[in-house]
Amino acid sequence: MRIGVLGAGQLGRMLALAGYPLAHSFVFYDMSGSPSAGIGETLVDTAGTQVDDFLTRVDCVTYEFEHLPVNIAEQMANSKPVYPAPRALEVCQNRVLEKTLFGELGIPTPEWRLATSAESLQAAAETLGCPVVAKSVTEGYDGKGQAVLRSPEEAAAAWAHIGHDKLIVEKFVNFHREVSIIAVRSQAGELAFYPMAENAHHNGILRYSIAPAPRLSNETREEAERYIRALLNELDYVGVLTLELFETDNGLVANEMAPRVHNSGHWTMEGAYTSQFENHIRAVSGLPLGNTAARGVSCMVNIIGEHGDTAKILELPYTHLHLYDKEERAGRKLGHVNVWADSYDELVWRVRNCASFLPGAPELNCSLTKG
Ligand code: AMP
């Protein structure tokens, strides 16, 4: 099958790597002008005028990136199957639509308000009670387009700093940790859930994902599965969906979802029987889903900004290195290392050892290191 992928970054690269053993081929559609998948065919169309050309080259279409015009995906859906359907894209691009849908489906979110001026931001901060997090309604990712307000008086500065005309203002959640759940739904409506991951961020960027998330209660896992099942069924979803959550004293609170494979699921490449990439490809190409169970325990360590000592990492007998063939640049995701172990104690030791070869890698700070 010829699979068309909207977006052409490292997620697309890893989708193609998972799809080749199933005899699929890949065509990437890039509107950014800087594709980096470095695999398959790529059509660069910054003006959005080559949709028809792209469609003649593919049998179905999916995404690896959600920040592209919904009308392009809708236009494509008129002539080829697009998985997941463009509504998922529309919801994920807009934090108001997303939080509204969560609310309708009974998925808890931080209490939130919409702000359309510095004054309404200040009013929202007063009503909700500080601290609050203000985020641009559209175009935000990796903590960009956001500010934390410690007092309502910071509204004018935060408004100017973010520079968008619509902000969602959320009550700051005092969470124990951040977790995510990744699930996949097939064309036949079959569902499969990956073990959840515990995610450690640094300066808004994911640095470590540990899976299965240590000391996660069955109750919490079932809660997360209930929420993501509701989303998958409501959106008549086909493919992999990710839901990012905060774990709190009062249960899970949803942060956001991504209509695609996700950085917090990279551990599945060697840490699960079937990777998130393969399962996404299986779903969009009409194949049955693969086993999502974990093999041992894993930690994904992101390589950010600088490659570090890759030769040393390759010497470690318990790591798998994945490089995205990108130039070094501050804050850029260049690759990741999947570290595998039989036990969490062994995992912590191995991750620290691996991180010592990655300049700028923050200390591993997670539930396993907090005792
Ligand atoms: P986001 O772009 O919404 O994923 O936010 C980036 C990061 O900011 C999250 O991974 C959290 O660490 C933090 N964050 C976002 N929203 C909140 C919130 N309401 N309360 C506390 N922390 C938050």
What does it look like?
By secondary structure, the protein is an alpha+beta fold. It folds into 3 domains: 2-82, Rossmann fold, CATH 3.40.50.20; 111-171, 2-Layer Sandwich (Dna Ligase, domain 1), CATH 3.30.1490; 177-369, ATP-grasp fold, B domain (D-amino Acid Aminotransferase, Chain A, domain 1, 2-Layer Sandwich). The protein has 12 helices and 17 strands. Strands 9, 10, 11, 12, 13, 14, 15, 16 and 17 form a 9-stranded antiparallel sheet that branches. Strands 3-2-1-4 form a 4-stranded parallel sheet, covered by helices on one side. Strands 5-8-6-7 form a 4-stranded antiparallel sheet, covered by helices on one side. Helix 1 (10-19) links the parallel strand 1 (2-6) and strand 2. Helix 1 packs across helix 10 (276-284), helix 3 (70-77) packs antiparallel against helix 4 and helix 6 crosses helix 7. The model has no long low-confidence stretch (mean pLDDT 97). The site of adenosine monophosphate has 14 residues, from strand 6 and strand 14.
Summarize the structure.
The chain has 371 residues and is of the alpha+beta class. Helix content is 29%, strand content 27%.
Q: What are the SSEs and their pairings?
A:
Elements lengths: L1 E5 L3 H10 L5 E6 L10 E4 L6 H6 L3 E4 L6 H8 L8 H8 L1 H10 L7 E4 L2 H11 L3 E5 L9 E4 L5 H8 L4 E5 L5 E9 L5 E3 L3 E6 L2 E7 L6 H17 L4 E10 L2 E8 L9 H4 L4 H9 L12 E8 L5 H6 L3 E5 L9 E9 L2 H12 L16
Parallel strand pairs: 1-2, 1-4, 2-3
Antiparallel strand pairs: 5-8, 6-7, 6-8, 9-10, 9-11, 9-13, 11-12, 12-15, 13-14, 15-17, 16-17
Bound molecules: adenosine monophosphate.
The site of adenosine monophosphate has 14 residues, from strand 6 and strand 14.
